[in-house]
Amino acid sequence: MKISTKGRYALRLLVDLAEHQENGYVSLKDIANRQDISKKYLEQIVALLNRPDILHTNRGYQGGYRLAKEPKEYTIGDILRITEGSIVPVSCLEGDTVNCDRAELCATLPIWRGLSKVINEYLDSITLQDVLDQKKENYSYDYVI
Question: Could you tell me how many helices (H) and strands (E) the chain has, helices first?
């Protein structure tokens, strides 16, 4: 499994919105500048995330985007499932049933199920708030003299 640029940039976009949520609606131009991501690419990502339970949108002057919920309510797993479609390690685990004629005979299937479980549990245990908290902790000792 490899997380695409779209998934990684979506996380950066949402973390940026979480960091600047006190500013109200944030423009894609500002996010693009801070994150060094093209505005055009962010527009494609926003199209995936532009759902009432993820983002709120405001058009016009002072328009932009803001989170629809508190950062603690967004899991990294949920975000990656939206942008990646799936985060399973092997294609036979896509969907609710195993898509393989050899599933009953497959000695490696339990390995892939276990790996998928670990990946999902890990990504679902991290929220945007956790990312913000860790970032603050990592940069709280950054002194300038």
Answer: 6, 2
pLDDT profile of the chain (145 residues), mean per 10: 93 96 92 96 95 90 92 96 91 82 88 94 97 84 59
Element containing residue 129 per DSSP (H, E) = helix 128-139
Q: How far, in Å, CA of 69 to CA of 53, rounded?
A: 7
Neighbouring C-alpha atoms within 13 Å toward the C-beta of 140: 7
Nearest to 78 by CA among 44, 111, 48, 108: 48
Q: What is the pTM of this model?
A: 0.87
Sole residue written with tokens 């998928």: 116
